[in-house]
Amino acid sequence: MDSSAPTPPPQPAPRPRHRDRHGRGMRGPIAPPQVPLALSRADAFDDLVRDAADRLERRWPQLADVEFAVQDVPWPQDTPPSDDDPVPLGRLIGAAKDRPSRIVVYRRPVEIRAKGRDERALLVHEIVVEQVAELLGLSPENVDPKYGEE
User: Fold this and answer.
1) Strand, helix or coil at 71?
2) What is the tens place of the pLDDT at every residue in 84-108?
3) Model confidence over 122-147: pLDDT tens digits?
4) Exposed, middle or buried by CB within 10 Å (0-12, 13-18, 19+), for 101?
5) For residues 85 and 93, what is the distance between their CA atoms, to the nearest angstrom?
6) Which end of the chain has fewer CB atoms < 10 Å from its terminal CB, N or C?
7) Cβ pair 80, 93 in contact under 8 A
8) Who contacts 133 (Cβ-Cβ below 8 Å, separation ≥6)?
9) How far, in Å, CA of 2 to CA of 4, rounded?
10) What pTM was estimated for this model as a whole?
């Protein structure tokens, strides 16, 4: 072998294969956080309850002290025996000396009964109105004049 023969130039290292276009990587998140695609079902349900509560708090300022909560399913002790509705959709827990009144909406029973997003939003609003009416000692129609119309 002749040692005077020129050595071939070194070959560049092979580039790793990228699955994205032109090897640039992802340019940003698929969906920004404010878009509903970025919300889980539980987060979207929480927003429905919060919207219904905010809507009623504007009309009834005394609801500012009431806590609104979401629970996935009712606990067995939360469900009084009833023949007409075996699974409750919401519950009012009265105030005690160390805590304010609380309105709880049960997410899974509501999701099972509602067929779509619009129907779910309407059902959540009706549940919140009914529980607020029970708290205030009024009829649901007095709490929200649009109750039952939609």
Assistant:
1) strand
2) 657 889 999 988 888 999 999 999 9
3) 999 999 999 999 999 999 999 988 88
4) middle
5) 18
6) N
7) no
8) 139, 140, 142, 143
9) 5
10) 0.71
